[in-house]
Amino acid sequence: MVLVMGGVMGKITHTRFDLALTVTVISIGINYGFFLTFLTVSTSMIYPFTKSESFILSALISVAIHVAFLTLLFRIKRLRKGILFLQKKGSGAVGLIIGGIILVTVTFMNNSVVSDETATVIVIGAILCAAGLILWWRSGLTKLYREKVRERSLRDYEKLIEEKDGQILRLQESNDFMAKLIHRDSKLLPAMYEVVKTFLENGDISNGMGILLRLEEQMSERTGAITRVQHENKILPSTEDSFVDGVMKRMMLKAAEEDIQFDITITGDISGLTETVIPSVKFQTLCADLIENAIIAASYSDYRRIHIMLGMSEGLYELDIQDTGIPFEIATLMDLGVKKASTHLDDGGSGIGYMTVFEILREFRASLIITEYEPTRYGFTKSVKVRFDGMREYTVRTYRDFPAARAAEAPAVSRVKL
After folding, report:
1. Do 351 and 341 form a contact (C-beta atoms < 8 A)?
2. 125-141, pLDDT tens digit by residue?
3. What whole-number distance in Å separates Cα of residue 214 and Cα of residue 146?
4. Measured distance CA(63)–CA(60) in Å, rounded
5. How is residue 52 annotated by DSSP?
6. In the chain, count of helices (H) and strands (E)?
7. Distance of CA 110 to the CA centre of its chain
8. Please, what is the end-to-end C-alpha distance for the chain in angstroms?
């Protein structure tokens, strides 16, 4: 029976015969082992009531328990995909031996010459072997899992090394560029010094204006080149999602076009954000809309900076975008999420961005918290924070007077449900 089943299963699954035979012996061994276990349990259960050994009733009960047990067994996450580690050579030897022992045990039990005492010992041995098979199965899966983790770690390290090599190459190119710039300046600065010295000695005003224009032109070219190199070679921290990283990179380049300093801070482990809380594509949209609004606002200021903080706070995922841009108009804050609202409608803003943001916040039960700070020379003017807290609230905290019509606590704090 075992040989026939092994051959048939090998043909059906296109598996080599030795592996199919090993799996067949182990599978039959597990089935027989647990059938004997449940048969013993069911017989013990009904004997006090019937005062006799009713084999048919015991068999029916044991089969029912057996089917239920195997169904639950393969619902366990670690055992759901079967005995995967058997594909490695030599890994099935222990299981094959234990399964073979169970089959031999069952064969002996079918022999009527065997005494009751011997049969009892054989049953106990089969039960122990079945338990041993399960322990061996779990141990093999654990080893396989650890090996896969190790392989995945090696791939991650190889990818990290590749990224670091790319970063080193870009930094080398940047260093070469800066070296050429310094070399050029070392030649030009003495010449400029002599020109300025001559101008001061002669007092030629018309010639002085030409010198000033030349200096401004060269300084502008130098500053632009340095700024461009800084943005091209700036390394942003990873968000653990390559698509979100792409959005952040694109937003950084967009900020660079407006001469805006762009920084990102990652705190804690955020790998589960786009896996369990919000789909990656939705989070990308959220980031793109909010950061783009911050870029537009900061482009109107003399001091231009955006700082993005992404991570865990009090056990909750948060996205916090701070900028030095112009503040929201009160009417814009009142209409966010209700109708198309934008502080920059006169400059082509559509107001659609926040409508999309609020739809995403409602869908994933996140809260939006806008905090406005009193103006300082080199400080942030506002913070737009998304908190995945399941509350679905829209809160405004500001130093300005806020209409009490939507205020739930005080004029400086307004909170409503999204």
Report:
1. yes
2. 767 776 776 777 777 77
3. 66
4. 5
5. S
6. 10, 7
7. 57
8. 66
